[in-house]
Specification:
Elements lengths: L1 H35 L5 H19 L7 H25 L3 H9 L1 H13 L5 H13 L1
Helix pairs in contact: 1-4, 2-3
């Protein structure tokens, strides 16, 4: 009770600092990618990014309980499809700011595809979340 209330401001400050750090890293991500593309070919750079993320994660995260072919398909579609094409576009076609907007709009595309393919319907709070997300773009 009381000890938790005493630690609340420290946790709140820590959370705010962590949120700010994530925002800064996320916000500079596309600029850093653009700089890196001056040194490496797009698909090599994308592959290295995923390899450096996967190797430590493989030791600490449990493999999802899905068929290996689904996991492999997801990896190919996200890694090569989404990020491979992003890196190719950033290499010579679009600016980092536009790339960021295109990538963040994927959530709307994913939801639209889900509604179309699975006939899923959104509930009220989900429409609100979409509106907040659109305002953030």
């Amino acid at each position: 009770g009381r000890a938790e209330a005493t630690n609340a401001p420290a946790r709140s400050l820590r959370g705010a600092v962590l949120a700010l750090a994530v925002t800064m890293v996320w916000g500079t991500n596309f600029v850093v990618i653009k700089v890196g593309l001056g040194q490496l070919p797009p698909l090599t750079f994308a592959a290295l990014r995923f390899a450096f993320a996967f190797i430590p994660a493989a030791f600490f995260l449990k493999r999802p309980d899905v068929p290996i072919r689904n996991l492999a398909a997801f990896g190919v579609l996200i890694g090569l499809g989404q990020f491979g094409l992003l890196y190719i576009a950033l290499h010579s076609m679009i600016l980092p700011g536009l790339a960021s907007l295109v990538m963040q709009s994927q959530v709307f595309i994913t939801i639209g595809l889900s509604m179309w393919l699975t006939k899923e319907r959104l509930r009220g709070f989900q429409w609100t979340a979409l509106a907040v997300g659109a305002a953030g773009l």
